[in-house]
Amino acid sequence: IGGPLQRTALKEYGAELLTRSRMVFELQGALDGERQYGALVAHYQPQVDHLRGVLIGLEALVRWQHPARGMVFPNSFIPLAESTDKIYQLDMLVLEQVCRDMRAWLDQGLPVVPVALNFSRRSLLHPQVIADLRQLLARYGIDGGMLEFEVTESQLLATADLVGPRVAEFRALGARIAVDDFGTGYSNLDAISSFPFDRLKVDRQFVHGVEGSERVAGLFHLIQGIAELFKAELLCEGLEDEADLLWLARRGASCVQGWYFSAARTPEAIVRILGALRERATAPPLTTAQLR
Ligand code: C2E
Ligand code: MG
Ligand code: MG
Ligand code: MG
């Protein structure tokens, strides 16, 4: 059937299907800990208060160390995990690694900071999540207050009525809730005011390369007002250069994360960073230059 054009299209479609089903298969293998499919590993990106010069937290960001493809970034497999019902297993695997890493850091006497994890809506709403979280906290001896769960604005608001009670259960364990990629979802203020949250993470599009844009400056001011209204902390993502830093500093926005300070680092690199912080524990706080 069809001419050469259609045959090519069919062939490409076939190849794409093969890639997708193969990726689903391999991802399941990695989730089940089968070594030939590589490993899913959380790296950590530092979050800093650049006006005070201190490390305030870490965000766990999952990577797939694939034997043939090398390091695979989450944007190419999280959507696949979400659409094939594997996301809960993935999010819990990351949560367990975070608890295990924190336990090791505590045992080494390192100055541990809170860790933020990304949770898909499905994981947040999963019927087992609170029981599983409790169990992990108990097994590793981790305080719920050392964890923050990030859900994107669009995923939270799609089901705001279901999210409210669940968010309360997380917070009852001491965990914090962050609204991720804020400013890119619906910004339905009525829905967002229907549940409590602790932090607004301002999306990179309001942070990087915005100097000189009056429009973005106005929106940023609004977002600061929203955070204040809801008594939530503001954290700006995607800070890449000095110009971004100065722009934020002028607006009194002090909590940031981005490549300017550090990309996500391996757990081993984080141990070195925390070790260096312990050495300085009695010294004055770090300067911005020292944190870079
Ligand atoms: P996100 O939570 O908004 O994470 C921020 C993303 O921006 C990360 O990409 C991070 O590496 C990147 N980034 C950090 N600083 C900068 C910067 O200065 N400039 C730019 N251009 N980018 C920066 P990554 O690691 O590829 O993660 C992408 C998304 O994947 C995350 O977005 C998050 O939504 C999702 N994700 C990551 N890990 C998990 C997980 O364990 N579970 C779930 N459900 N989602 C995850
Ligand atoms: Mg995030
Ligand atoms: Mg984000
Ligand atoms: Mg994002």
Automatic annotation (TrEMBL):
- Which segments constitute the EAL domain? 20-278
The signal peptide stretch is none
Q: Which domain of life is it from?
A: Bacteria
Q: What is this protein called?
A: EAL domain-containing protein
Name its species.
Duganella alba
